[in-house]
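Re: your question from the hallway

Yes, I did run it. Sequences:
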Amino acid sequence: MNNCIFCKIIKGEIPSQKIYEDDLVYAFHDIAPAAPVHILIIPKTHIPCLQETEPTHQALLGHILLTAKKLASELGVAEEGYRIVNNCGEKSGQTVFHLHFHLLAGDTFSKLV
Ligand code: 5GP
Ligand code: ZN
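Structure:
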């Protein structure tokens, strides 16, 4: 996807503060943090949103969540707790249409659900 900001970040065409990378995922600091810790975890392959995933993405989706768990430990927020957010579709507030999971911590979050 030529026009995708996150694909450009993965390729290094747009700078980012990378925190982790492997064959499948890329994780970096959100440019406009909504909490003291605000990391985005994205697949290296372009998938617009969760609704566009298929059963073939099962391992990838699991890997993203296990990466979130690992990063929470490394960032020292696992014990106090953290929130994982995925916005899917315009009404949810999704603004970048490359699948991503927010890892938020360091704050007390109001309860939505
Ligand atoms: P969404 O609103 O789609 O769930 O989340 C998109 C997130 O991407 C937002 O929190 C926004 O701040 C972040 N973001 C948008 N553009 C960039 C960018 O160029 N670099 C970084 N690091 N984050 C970005
Ligand atoms: Zn993309």
